[in-house]
User: Fold this.
Amino acid sequence: MKLSKVALIGLLFVVARVQAQDALPASNDTPVVQINDINSFDTTLDNTDNATQGEVAAAAAVDAGATEYQAAEIADAIDNEGASAASASIDAGLTNSQAAEVITEVVTASEDIPSQGEVAADAAADVGATDAQVEEIKDAIDSGASAASAALDAGLSDAQTAEVIDQVTTASDEIADPADVAAAAAIESGASSSEALEIATAVDNGDSAAVAATEAGLEPAAVADIVSEVIDSAEKVSDPADVAAAAALDNGATASQAADVAESVDAGSSAAAAAADAGLDTAAVADIVDQVSSSSDNVAAPADVAAAAAIDAGASAEQVADIMTAVDAGESPSDAAADAGLSSAASAAVEAQVEDSADNHAPAADVAAAAAADAGASPEQVADVAASVDAGASPSDAAADAGLSSSAVAAVEDVVDKSPVLPCTTTPTPTARLRGACTSSSFAA
Assistant:
């Protein structure tokens, strides 16, 4: 029987992992992976409906001329380390043109992912919801509600709600990274592969797509197209409440506990605090925090949301550029729009869209806690960091107080610094902040 390329890549991983178990450790502690020679891959990408992003990228890499080893490295980086297809391809040694092919294939595949409302509606119907409940759930999610709150408000049981949450978050796992979406859109707008990779790298490093595309020298019309594509993709990102609830279920929580977690996060709690309050242990809390933080990586940057909203409001290219720059610098979207000459109604619309998007960003406590875990903190330390940031401490102070090393503290601070900042509109002077940390001067730009 002829295996599809995806199946062959899966086989390659099995071979690599089995051999890696018996290999001697490298002197620099890098895992040794030995891969059997596979003479050929099926060069037609089959069965992509259930393929992960990593598998799609690996297949595209082989089509572009990459080796089996490079393909495996790319798939592992995307599926297991959360890398964008752009960074995974570059790190694996692909040329710019090869990386561009991989990015395009990954983004094209992700475009077929239904909206959250559609996924939730199908899941609700599958677990026995009535037609009226299904419609109510879809309408609520399309209006900005989390799948958890929509399902519970529609009268679904905790068990039914848990299934809906699981389906929604599973679908959003395959959303393309904003860096990849921006790069693919740049290519469609006529950018070279090197320009596209430059944009992807900048977005991976924390720039908004709008700023990255502008600095790469693209025309305003191309920048607008890129921003629109990034925003459209980001609309499929799961609400943090849903991600937290799904992660809780993954860690053994009951449907009732998962519902409690979702409701708490919807009400403004960090996922860390919500999980702890629901009675989950520190190891579970740490994993939930990690999943929530990772999910929010696919949320569009505030500057991109503001730019897209300004375009929708009829702003000129120059006005869009001014708004984008101002929001990136920490100004509130409404002030940025007003300063650029937009009407009060248009300025309010820009502000509203940025605030709506902000709901999908991980709370500051979760970002800091996830960064602490990545820096080697124990589950107990992760919980301490989250609790301290929730109480108003800066991420660096929280990490230091939890007993992390100076290098780990610096790593936490670096991650938080690169996280999207959201304009705080509750003070006379706008202060750049992470979601959930509006009052902390530690987050000032």
Observations:
- The chain has four domains: 5-110, 116-174+237-298, 178-235+300-358, 366-443.
- Residues 5-22 form the longest helix (18 residues).
- The chain has a mean pLDDT of 83.
